[in-house]
User: Fold these one by one.
Assistant:
Number 1:
Amino acid sequence: MPRRIDSEPLAEPGAPTAAATLAPADAAAAGPAAQPGILLLDDDPFMLSVHSLMLRGMGLQRIVTALRGEDALQSLQSDLQAVDVIVCDLNMPGMDGIEFLQAVDASPYRGSVILLSGEGTRIMHTVQKLLGGGRLQILGALEKPARPAAMQALLERWKPVTAAHGQTPAPVYACEDIHAAVREQQWVLHYQPKVNLRSGALAGVEALVRWQHPLHGLVYPDRFIGLAEDCGAIDALTDWVLRESTRQLTRWQREGLPMPIAMAVNVSMENLRQPGFSRRLGALMREAGVPPQDMTLEITESRLMAPSPAPLESLVRLRLQRFGLSIDDFGTGHSSLAQLRDVPFTELKVDRGFVQGASGNPIIRPMLEASIGIAKRLGMQSVAEGVETAEDWQLLREIGCDLAQGYFIARPMASDRLAAWLDDWRGHSRRLLAPP
Ligand code: C2E
Ligand code: MG
Ligand code: MG
């Protein structure tokens, strides 16, 4: 891994990941005293004893077993503190695993769950999704009979939840807060590099806005972009982002960073609805002395679904001016292919949900390959976001994705960190790309 010189915290608020929230090191650091209590539920007595013996073999002592969902619920009710991880079979007569876990989700239990099934990966994937939206922490799913190493790996993801109990709820903001932030320009941009997967070269950066709140510190965009849209403040915010990011390009140029650095900014659907948006952006670029082809506008396609033609009109005008247009979070909306068909995008950014862990996942890997194949055939640049591991990186190289962005390369960072990161990355990427 490259030396960490970025300014954002390791577990970035608003962007939790399995790797960030379930780091095995955390569980290990908790020590043996923090061993999880296990509730093992399976209607097959043989499987129950196999798994129970296996868990004991791993040194776990607090194990409760049940053959029926009803009994497991009763155990939970009688001593909630005794259970930290539920290891649960899905296919059971009577109350099945899904019904059981829905009941658990509605109960005060706030621990973790490991799913067990002989039903194959596709079913488990769906069940994981189904339950992942609730309050239970799904550590993962295992085919029956579970292999000790796989069980161990999932258990290492478990983290005692005690710290969460003391947390104060995140503040909720109102329109007047956002308008005050606009007036006082309480924004700061962090930049995350995109690098070429073949050469390792820096291909550009994405500007990501943060709110430097006078009382709460750095607030991440998931907590205020929607509000800025609803409160009519998004135009002023986007203007600020565009001005600041183009100014930053000039500053980096003065400092001797290799130019041109392609800049990407996120543009909201609300921006695209404004009649004069494309003209204003053109004027802004001329003012800054940056050619539009050095600027890519990233658009989250789930927001592109509005029926009005205004966004399409803006997009086509922007493209005529030679702005790059990127379809962000590709694969997560309802009509990704329809958007690709209708909008002259130049870049396809595959959502991290199709990138992370793809090398070992027979469901998402074909989707990643297909997305990159579509980009190629349409003559678009492909970018994978959320690249967190060497395995993700290697797979993307193998399947011919153009650019990568993610914590494996760099976290978003303050502008003055880019030069040092680049120095560091040059050495690291040389080693990464060297033939074995
Ligand atoms: P996005 O455009 O898809 O940006 C990528 C997000 O993923 C960023 O979160 C980034 O910090 C995070 N990320 C990058 N690499 C990794 C990784 O390896 N793992 C994980 N788990 N996360 C990674 P951030 O900065 O919190 O931004 C969230 C979203 O807020 C952005 O998603 C974008 O849609 C929106 N946003 C950010 N800045 C602006 C802005 O200036 N204007 C508008 N309208 N939206 C913005
Ligand atoms: Mg983006
Ligand atoms: Mg994205």
Note: The radius of gyration is 24 Å.
Number 2:
Amino acid sequence: MEITKICCIGAGYVGGPTMAVIAQKCPHIQVTVVDLNEERILAWNDKNTNNIPIYEPGLDTIVAEARGRNLFFSTEVDKAIDEAQIIFISVNTPTKTYGKGKGMAADLKYIELCARQIARVAKSDKIVVEKSTLPVRTAEAIKSILDSTGNGVQFQILSNPEFLAEGTAVQDLLNPDRILIGGDTTEEGQKAIQALVDVYSNWVSSEKILMTNVWSSELSKLTANAFLAQRISSINAMSELCEKTGADVNEVAKAIGMDSRIGAKFLKASVGFGGSCFQKDILNLVYIAKSYGLNEVADYWEQVIIMNDHQKRRFSNNIVQTLYNTVADKKITFLGWAFKKDTNDTRESAAIYVANDLINEHANIAVYDPKVSRKKILSDLDYLETRTSEENGKSIFTFGDPYLSCEKAHAIAVLTEWDEFVHYDWQKIYDGMQKPAFVFDGRNILNKTELEDIGFVYQAIGS
Ligand code: NAI
């Protein structure tokens, strides 16, 4: 089957960039990205591609090239489903906040709604692709909903998890380590897999396209995120031991990273990982393991989260302790609010939790982030429901200028590793601060010697 029309439900951090790259690389395929969120679709269609809702280096150029040619953003979900041969489901799958599995299981209500909508609308055979990260065996549930209409329309369900990392999404999509496609072993299943392989083959070489059964594919994505997060928690655990023993975690990371069995990537100690995926996917894995009675497996992976929470908490505790056991009415400046550099995504960012702890101690938090708005910062804090929005509003001060944000501050905390922070005029910042001037580098990006020579009291993670 030659694919000429694709639709993607969900115009978020995955759906938007992924479909933009497919459209750019496959000019013969019409790609329509749909979402219920009108504001988001409006922003994707903004004439000025600087205003698209997701910041990713290089994405604006790709959208500018393909949009209106073979890339479309729309709220007309039914129409797009009806016309497409392949439908990607790329909606959010957050941790459940209610009922059975609250705080652990993935909330599949958005996925189920998509499946029901596809079942209702589809009049011709469709390939439905799980792009969202889903618990293993979700395809079974989707299939049962799709097949329930009895109208003779045939559906093939594929699992095609997305491995892009925010901040490098465009590069990851253009040059992926691998594309994973899981499908049925039946003849129809294999045909569906081939149709999707043909799409990716427009720019990805065949040895990087991996085909598995659906369950392996679904579980591989959870496994990949669990392993990645585990590396961060492992090095963070060592960072605390380094601080007690006089070892330096950067030196330890370098030494172990040169072992080719370990590898050098993802060994950077920090205030803790954030992002929408790691925590939710591990919790989901823990929940699945428990649901099969595999308590040791569940406990093993849960430690990754426990360690991460500890790392965030100990960062805020250390700030309070170092500032003579009180931060009440003191100005603490946060450089960075996004969960990592080169993204405007703040979901589960360590900054949110550290700010929350410090506001509990009556600190005033000044924030400068090059890509995150005040509105977003406040809504992140409100989401924790620790205090009223009004109280949060009174404790958070946001700045469009980093130097102003640091003026008269008692301390600076680096929460995101934005490159620009490294190149600031730190002498100028020092001159404007209260003394002693403290810097808590939660990302280990600043130059210790330079800062100490200026006069800062500088503390990094793990040294
Ligand atoms: P997102 O929250 O940015 O986007 C999801 C979008 O789906 C939202 O705009 C929402 O309005 C829309 N939506 C929800 N239900 C809908 C419906 N019934 N019809 C139409 N639109 C609907 O989420 P994000 O970050 O793009 O994640 C999507 C999935 O991809 C998740 O399962 C996530 O785990 C996975 N993933 C995320 C990665 C990331 O870096 N953010 C990386 C790899 C996978």
Note: The longest helix spans residues 214-245.
